[in-house]
Write a structure and sequence with these properties.
By secondary structure, the chain is an alpha+beta fold. The chain folds into 2 domains: about 120 residues; about 140 residues, no CATH class. The protein contains 5 helices and 11 strands. Strand 3 and strand 4 form a beta hairpin.
């Protein structure tokens, strides 16, 4: 698998945390138009983003109207964007010096012009479970550490490239989506397509840009591969490229920032990420293999 990769680690990972959390909050505003204006889906994926390479932004699905648009969040230079059907920027609001409420107010002004009518209700504000940050108390966003925001953008761009390749090479894989509440970008591989209920087997493959409090304690980005249902009482295989198994709260293979960066720059990081993914996917498939049922013999 050949992927496009931008070197990570030119910025101290500790500096990236604040940029990532600010963007996590801005993503709640950027995701609010589709939450109200797109048809609800069973998996709530109408709220999700995809990575749009041309504007280097997380963009939602197209909202129809007088001027069809996608709501988007650009990590660097950090801004809310409104894109047209070809991902060209038609309006933008930079985050620096703005409050969260100002982001919503800007969308409240811009969207009615594009859909040709007033919004039926105010755009939905974020709920509970988001990481703590002063912007949640209506303090202004600060993007003075521009390099840290650029690093977040590189993580998402690399993850999109890596995960898109995995989705294309695995049958029954979902589109690569970024889920605004957890801010992770992932694809889900169904091993039992069409099977109902929680017993249906699947493998989740993604990137978390860092955990919210209580989600495992990893402040820095990490790639993950998880098997569902979580394997119990099974020996967990060794993983390539410094990957480890998380067993607290959830079971899954993890490639953390230090292990990835230790591989070296550029292509060496890409090779490590691919090697980890290959071993983790094979491990999870093995853990989900159903034991063969004993043959039934007719009674003589």
């Amino acid at each position: 698998m050949t992927i496009s990769w931008e070197t990570l680690g030119t910025v101290d990972p500790r500096r990236v945390v604040d940029a990532r959390v600010q963007l996590h909050w801005a993503a709640q505003a950027a995701s609010s138009p589709a939450r109200q204006l797109l048809e609800p889906r069973p998996d709530s994926s109408e709220q999700c983003f995809r990575w749009a390479s041309m504007p280097r932004a997380l963009a939602q699905d197209l909202v129809d109207g007088v001027w069809p648009f996608r709501s988007a969040l650009r990590p660097s230079t950090p801004a809310l964007l409104l894109l047209d059907a070809n991902d060209r920027v038609t309006a933008e609001l930079t985050l620096d010096g703005r409050t969260l409420e100002e982001l919503y107010a800007w969308l409240d002004r811009e969207i009615p012009r594009r859909i040709g009518r007033a919004l039926l209700q105010p755009l939905q504000r974020p709920g509970e479970g988001l990481p703590e940050h002063p912007v949640s108390a209506d303090e202004s966003f600060s993007v003075i550490d521009a390099a840290a925001f650029s690093e977040v953008g590189r993580w998402f761009a690399n993850a999109h490239s890596l995960l898109s390749g995995i989705a294309q090479s695995n049958a029954n894989a979902s589109a690569v989506r970024c889920w605004p509440h957890h801010f992770d970008i992932a694809t889900l591989i169904s091993l039992d397509p069409g099977s109902p209920g929680e017993s249906a087997r699947s493998i989740g493959v993604g990137l978390s840009p860092g955990d919210s409090p209580g989600d495992g304690g990893r402040a820095h980005p990490y790639f993950y591969v998880t098997a569902w249902p979580y394997p119990k009482d099974r020996e967990l295989p060794a993983l390539a490229a410094g990957g480890v198994w998380n067993t607290e709260g959830w079971t899954g293979a993890v490639l953390e920032t230090p292990a990835l960066l230790s591989a070296g720059p550029g292509e060496a990081q890409a090779a490590a990420a691919e090697s980890f993914m290959e071993s983790a996917l094979a491990a999870c498939r093995g853990l989900l293999e159903r034991p063969e049922e004993p043959e039934k013999h007719e009674e003589e």
